[in-house]
Amino acid sequence: MIREAWYAITPQSSTVEWWKIGWFPRSIPKHCFCIWLTFCEAHRTLNKMVRWGLVPINRCEFICGQGESIDHFFFECTFIARIWNHFLLLYRFRRRPSGWHVESEWCSQRLKGNDFKSWLTKLTLAAVIYHSWQERNNRLYNNFVRSFECLVSGIGDNVVDKCRGLTQVDDNPTNRELLSNWNLQPILLTL
Ligand SMILES: [Zn+2]
User: Domain Reverse transcriptase zinc-binding spans what residues (predicted)?
Assistant: First the structure.
């Protein structure tokens, strides 16, 4: 159903630079739908809801003292940036997360390849975005709060589950390190 919705409302054009970041082989559909909403800036962020008169105050749910917007949430917010940065460092990307307009441009350029590292980072980015937005909704509507550690663990579980479904990965030092980071066996590597 998500896939059908995706195709129904997405421009079917190769000129959409972020297409390969939002939809790729062996992705998690509900995560990809969420990242697609992010690329389209379709999330009902609090700055929009204040403008529409739905809520009185724009205050980020992660108690950072800032207002919520697409740029703030992904990934200027110190709490969410810490989650994304945790995985960037795990994959040896040494950069400081920025707002969505800068971050999405970096992702579109840096992750458009078909190598294992690009696939793994795209998978993780989609999981970070999905879980972060779910956490925001739980805090805002259900008064339910998870810690940084809990969120990172949940994202990691999704990534590892997907990696376990792989039948082979090219054998090179980078891929060996990436698998080792997730405590996965090198049996996945091609001989
Ligand atoms: Zn914030």
Answer: 2-84
Domain count, the chain: 1
In the reported structure, the alpha carbon of residue 188 is separated from the centroid of ligand 1 by a whole-number distance in angstroms of 39
What's the gap in Å between 134 CA and the centre of ligand 1? 14
pTM: 0.89
Look at residue 114 and tell me if it is in a domain: yes
Q: What CA–CA distances, in Å, run from 48 to 62, 128, 134?
A: 18, 22, 18
Boundaries of domain holding 93:
27-52+66-188
DSSP characters over 110-154: HS-S-SHHHHHHHHHHHHHHHHHHHHHHIIIII-----HHHHHHH
